[in-house]
Amino acid sequence: MALSGKPRVLEKRCAIVTGASLGLGFAIAQKYVEAGADVMICARSGDSLQAAHARLRELASPGQSVLAQCADVSNPRDVTALVERALGEFGRLHVLVNNAGITGPAGAVEDTDWHEWLHTLQVNLLGSVLLCRAVLPQFKESAYGKIIQLSGGGATKPLAMLSAYAASKAAVIRFMETLAEETRPHRIDVNSIAPGTLNTRLLDQFIAAGPDRIGSAFHARSLREKQQGGVPLDKGAELAVFLGSAGSDGITGKLISAVWDPWTALPEHLEDLRRTDVYTLRRIVPADRGLSWGTVE
Fold first, then answer.
1. From CA 207, how far away is CA 214, in angstroms rounded?
2. What's the pLDDT tens digit per position in 120-173?
3. How many domains does one find in the chain?
4. Helix (H) or strand (E) holding 67
5. Which among 32, 144, 165, 279 is annotated as catalytic?
6. What domain range includes position 149?
7. 279 classed as catalytic
8. CA distances (Å), 59 to each of 6, 31, 122, in order?
């Protein structure tokens, strides 16, 4: 039965949410269903996916579709089948939420398993690119679409001993910024979400790796986040709803923090967002830190 009293800002919109059987992915899918969207979820694990599907169907209104399909986002055949089924069932797509991701190997880069290192990029970076490639023809044909990428701490700062994870997250955010420029003429908005440190399976994996594998400082910080409960999943999920809705039309090419940025007010600042590089990855020069050197006369 659908929950009442919640704004249905995604009514008549159709979305794919990847990695949606657990954690933040499931929280996003739940918020999407509550906001009125037809939703296709995917994950690699059949058992957890079936359980998530059943829970989401209980929240759906009569006539609202919730579909589920096992898929490995790094497998081109799985991605093609996922998008083709969604289009076949829904008729069209409005939103893609790229949430699927893995932590990858922990440890010094020269000591990590090379195949695990590559697999991290295949899932976190190439998997997101594959999904974008699959939905873009229909988005361009409709002259409208929303692509939402989940980020991670490695996108904006180094993460020693987690090089594959950090590199993949930085790369996928720059890809999204680039894709935003490519698709701007087609009214396709492409944005990324920094959800904060979440108390999810990924955090448990960081902790389980131990200080020798991920560094004592990062391990201690992960333990503190675990003890404090982490950032509520709802914060990132609510931002994902906003970015999938008509209320965010025209906001594109940005990396937005669910915790620190005033994202509900961003529609009031569209011109500033269009003409500046705020909320993007960029190089820091000495003047940005109040230093007088570093400028060529």
1. 9
2. 999 999 999 999 999 999 999 999 999 999 998 778 888 889 999 999 999 999
3. 1
4. strand 66-70
5. 165
6. 14-196+231-289
7. no
8. 12, 10, 33
